[in-house]
Each structure stands twice: as structure tokens, then as C-alpha cells.
Amino acid sequence: MQALTLETPAGGLHVARWRPQAPGTRSPRTQSPRTRSPRPQASPIVLLHDSLGCIALWRDFPALLAEASGREVIAYDRLGYGESAPYPGPQPATFVADEASGGFATLREGLALERFVLLGHSVGGGMAVEIAGRHAEACEALVTVAAQATIEPLTLAGIREAEAAFAEPGAMRRLARYHGDKAEWVLRSWVDNWHSEAFDGWTLDDALTRVRCPTLAIHGEHDEYGSLAQPRRIASRTPGPAEPRLLPCGHVPHRECPEVLADIVAEFLAVRD
């Protein structure tokens, strides 16, 4: 894994890159029966993290995905998260759509990404949809994982339950392990934005109509933040499989079943290679 920093007007954007290894040099933990040879000319996969996430919380998944797909995998901490600079003020209610012209635009320019594949988890999936629509000429494929396409009572209730859990002794220290002194901002941005009047009625419907690339919606059957109506909404409004791919897990497939997720994404991309 290679780490680097890209500069923005608000400060540094922390980026990490994983490249697939040549046969014979791979770690056993990143190999599967369907591990593909490195494909240096293939477009990289860019990962977009969830509302409490960062590069570190992808854990082994980027390396697994790089080996399974044969492609470079790139992840970055959005401003305000992980090792990136603090966000300059409160996060606006337009933050999902804004990422296409914000952190992602910085990443694309800084790494000179002509073409790319997007994979977004949870709210990162919504951002991936917005980016795919905004950069339709360059986005080759889109994968959403446990993404929300609209606001459901289940989503809001799950966020409130998580907020209550973070009030328990020691819970915020675990969040600070990944976000440092930005941890309180990270939590409040998540809870307060989703429950704000300005966010009421939010959907991805307009952005979904602008997506032109093959799209795969993946969802856990036991997701505590969104019903199966969420991936079905995404799948029905984008090119690609008309039904979502369901996994026997909850909201975080890249931690609950990372090898399975990596193989599914790799298979989806291999059909289009």
C-alpha cells in the first residue's frame, strides 16, 4: 500500500493506493481461486467510505479487491475524516452531491485519472452515484454497497441507536482512534445532517437518471440502516442487473464477508473487460 497527500484549499487529502501483486509474490490472505493477474492498463477502482469511515476502516478489503480484480484500488479520507484535514465548518446538507466537485475532483486531478470504476459504501454509495452521473464520460462501472437512495424510518432509527451507543463510556475513544480530535465532528455530521429539516425528502433519483455506466447494487439481507427497497431503487434506475445482489450479512459487507464481496465485484468487472 502506498500513502500520499493531495493538497486542497482546506488542507491535505489523505490517499492510499493498492496495486495487485505479480504471481508468486502474493500474500495467501489476499488470494482466492479466482485471483486475476495484474492488469496495469485497466482503470483503477476508487473507494468511497461511509459516514463514520476512513481508509483504515476498509481494513483488508482494498488489498483483497486489488488481487481479485487485477486492478489498482484507490481510497481516500474525505475532508474531516481519518487522516485528512478537518472540514472547514459544518458539513452542509448538500454534502452527498458536493463530493463530485470536492474531494473526488481533487483526487481525479491529482492522480490524473482519465477513467475509473467507483465503489461506494453506505453514504459513499450515494456519492459514487453522484460522481458517476457528473463524470459519466469517464466512469466505466459503478458498484454501490449498502447504499441509501432515499430516507427511510429504518435509516433514521438506526442512526439514533448508533448515537445512543456512542454515549456509552469509552465509545467515542474508539471513533477517535480513526478520526482523532475530529471524532465529535464526524458523529455530529452524520446524526445531525440525516435528521435535519434541510435533508428531509432527500433522494438519489435525479442523480440515478444521469448514470450511464453498468451498475451493480449490493446489499446485506440484514442491513440495519436500509431495507431491500434501497438497492432495488438503485438497480431499477441504472444500467446493469435489474435486481440487486444480496449478501447474507448486515450493513458492512467489506468487514463481514470481504472475500465474497471482492469476488463479486471482480466478477462483475471481468464480464466487462
Helix content: 25-40%
Please give the number of β-strands: 8
Rounded to the nearest angstrom, the radius of gyration is: 17 Å
The CATH class is Alpha Beta
Largest sheet: 8 strands, mixed
Termini separation comes to 24 Å
In total, how many domains does the architecture comprise? Answer: 1
User: Strand arrangement, largest sheet?
Assistant: 1-2-4-3-5-6-7-8
**H/E element order:** EEEHEHHEHEHHHHEHEHH
Q: What is the mean pLDDT?
A: 93
Give me the CATH architecture, please. 3-Layer(aba) Sandwich
What's the tally of helices? 11
Strand portion, in percent? Answer: 15-25%
Structural class: alpha/beta
- The low-confidence runs, each spanning 5 or more residues with pLDDT under 50, are none
Topology (SSEs and partners):
Layout: E1 2-8, E2 11-18, E3 45-48, H1 61-69, E4 73-76, H2 95-98, H3 103-111, E5 116-121, H4 123-134, E6 139-145, H5 153-166, H6 171-179, H7 183-194, H8 205-209, E7 215-220, H9 229-236, E8 245-247, H10 253-256, H11 258-270
Parallel strand pairs: 3-4, 3-5, 5-6, 6-7, 7-8
Antiparallel strand pairs: 1-2, 2-4
Biased composition (Low complexity): 25-42
InterPro entries: AB_hydrolase_1, AB_hydrolase_fold
Domain AB hydrolase-1: 44-253
